[in-house]
Amino acid sequence: MKVEFAPLSVPLRRRLQTASVVQWVFSFLGLAQCCAAVFIALFFTRFWLVSALYAAWWFIDREKPSKGGRRIHAVRNSIVWRYMRDYFPVTLVKTAELDPRQNYLMGFHPHGVMAAGAFLNFCTEASGWFRVPFFRDYLMSGGLVSSDKESASYVLQKPEGGNVLTIIVGGAQEALDARPGSCTLLLKNRKGFVRLAIEHGTPLVPIFSFGENDLFEQVRNPKGSWLRQLQHRLQQIMGISLPLFHARGIFQYSFGLLPYRRPICTVVGKPIPVQRKHRPSEEEVDEVHQKYLNELFKLFEEHKAKHNIPEDRHLEFI
């Protein structure tokens, strides 16, 4: 196999962009494991008190990820994220103004392999990683919160408004279909976020991130294959999916785990008004869910030509 190496004359700015993505990929793939290992290892050194004190803090602070988290402005505004934004680059397009006095529930599509667009534009992708020592505080510093219903309700019921909760509806399972050209969304039977919006009377906002699925190649895993079955089984056990992805490296462009430099354009749709009801019926949830599907489909169709998507390619809801 011929390897295409990066030229030595790459500008410093581009090297810093690559470095920012390297640390992000490491955070995604290995930082949680490293944090857990350090936490345990410290107990067997003269610095055992650090882990002991943190364990006490962890217990006292255990509900924080479900109670709005803990943002640190310096982390959210770090220059690292601006370099990472410019690596692809990532852009955000609004199609309607949002009332700053209103809370919103945004549905983000598609998940992609690592949800790069969601992370950079909204910084709200979260999971069971909040159980990992040290790593949980790193996640909350950027504005991430736990993904359970209790946490979502806490954000949406704030009376002062001005809060946006972004949910990657397809979740980890959708990542298994993330490959260039894919327009498949795991959404047909995902209705919990709709029920949540109705219970709080929160407008729903569809979002489609063009280019999200183009960042990585993925090993072929059609439904019914042994690989897909193994991935589903591991997801049930671990709570996260394990797509076998690859793209480019740090100093060469032929193979590796860094995403390709391909543009991401995240388009935010118009809010869908939702009538508040404490216990909506299945029929009411289905009605709002269908409205959401229609608006998301319309959003995709209106903007796909700008992103070189063929006219005969449409969203597929499964």
From TrEMBL:
Put simply, this protein is called Acyltransferase
Q: Quote a single Gene Ontology cellular component term.
A: endoplasmic reticulum membrane
Top EC class per UniProt? transferase
GO MF, one annotated term:
diacylglycerol O-acyltransferase activity
The family assignment reads: Belongs to the diacylglycerol acyltransferase family.
| Membrane topology (UniProt) | Multi-pass membrane protein
What InterPro entries does the record point to? DAGAT (IPR007130)
EC number per UniProt? 2.3.1.-
UniProt keywords, alphabetically: Acyltransferase, Endoplasmic reticulum, Lipid biosynthesis, Lipid metabolism, Membrane, Transferase, Transmembrane, Transmembrane helix
Q: Which GO terms describe its biological process?
A: diacylglycerol biosynthetic process; triglyceride biosynthetic process
Listed transmembrane segments = 21-44
Q: From which source organism is this entry? A: Opisthocomus hoazin
Location in the cell = Endoplasmic reticulum membrane
Q: What is its main location?
A: endoplasmic reticulum
